[in-house]
């Protein structure tokens, strides 16, 4: 077993809520050592970027491609944060074309998708780099150790200290723990981690902490939308019909078309080498099941391209896709929470030195990046005033 890693603060998860929290907490002057422990290969979580070994040079945002802010109360906290990111050139206003497709090639004049209402922003680099840049802009003293490809399976709390144990046997000890994902509190952990008790429940038994009991009970009712994304690496001869110049172009299917084609959104992402990447999103459960059940995945993908071509058959901007370099997939079992968000009052459990952030809290932007950012900002303010 490796030597224990001892930290002042450990954060499980390296998604955008975690990065916003850590960055803002550092900005407020926190001077302890921080561990960010992430199961994936890089930061960003559900808003990250696929860097493919098989398709060198490509970077495709395979989760959330951009983000939007449309809080109604003109929340000063988030607006100030967004302005800082704009000033630092970490993000920019998304200049992309967003087209909502209806039957018979009609384009909706108003975009109904909750992902594109209000002000849309893109990373000036990639979505994974967005999370990294958010942290870097305040990590002047190099206070963070990153542990990638490290999945925490077990939590223990003893003598005011947390011990986290990863799948590969690494132990972390910390005074304060942040869970920047609901996984270790939610019933889906039983299946995903192949364990017989929710890890946080095991660490803090029932009736020991009212807030933790409440969160676990409320989360029991929260469920997740499954999404599957197909990443299409086209060949260099594939381009738009027109001379569109922006990096991204979004096509959203209205409800009727979603029912017919089973696709939700199709996002074109121009690469540095000028090739066009296409990320096709679906949240249709039958379609996703069909994909996983299909024995011949190559045939399934060929049929997918046939449908793509049928959808865009008379579309003035999109050429028929005749051949491609590769198609890979990403299955997001928990792409977005639905149901009720967890109340903000439960974000910090003072009795056990543990706190939480993520899009699963009941902030404006629940289930989206807006909510994840807001939860990270709010948490850093709360912890700063408490400790
Ligand atoms: C396909 C798709 C499209 C989307 N489109 C949009 C969009 O257009 N606009 C929008 O606003 N939102 C969109 N979303 C939602 C958006 O991505 C999320 O709301 C946001 O990224 C959530 O950030 P987070 O930090 O709360 O959680 P996450 O990004 O999920 O971060 C949590 C991290 O914790 C890690 N983790 C969890 N448990 C452990 C453990 N035990 N050990 C180690 N690491 C662990 C996970 O690997 C993950 O990286 C989309 C999501 C998906 C999947």
Descriptive notes:
With 387 residues, the chain is α/β, with parallel strands linked by helices. It folds into 2 domains: 5-66 and 130-224 and 341-386, FAD/NAD(P)-binding domain, CATH 3.50.50; 93-124 and 225-335, Polyamine Oxidase, Chain A, domain 2, CATH 3.90.660.10. 27% of the residues lie in helices and 29% in strands. The chain is built from 10 helices and 19 strands. The chain has helices at 16-27, 76-87, 127-136, 188-192, 199-203, 210-220, 255-261, 285-293, 297-311, 369-386, and strands spanning 5-12, 34-37, 49-51, 59-61, 67-69, 91-93, 97-101, 119-123, 144-147, 152-158, 161-166, 171-179, 223-234, 248-253, 265-270, 276-282, 324-338, 348-349, 354-356. Strand 11 and strand 12 form a beta hairpin. The longest helix has 18 residues, at 369-386. The protein is globular. Residues 12-18, 37-40, 45-47, 63-65, 67, 115, 151-152, 180-181, 183-184, 227, 229, 281, 332, 335-336, 358-359, 367-370, 372 line the site of flavin-adenine dinucleotide. Flavin-adenine dinucleotide binds at residues 12-18, 37-40, 45-47, 63-65, 67, 115, 151-152, 180-181, 183-184, 227, 229, 281, 332, 335-336, 358-359, 367-370, 372.
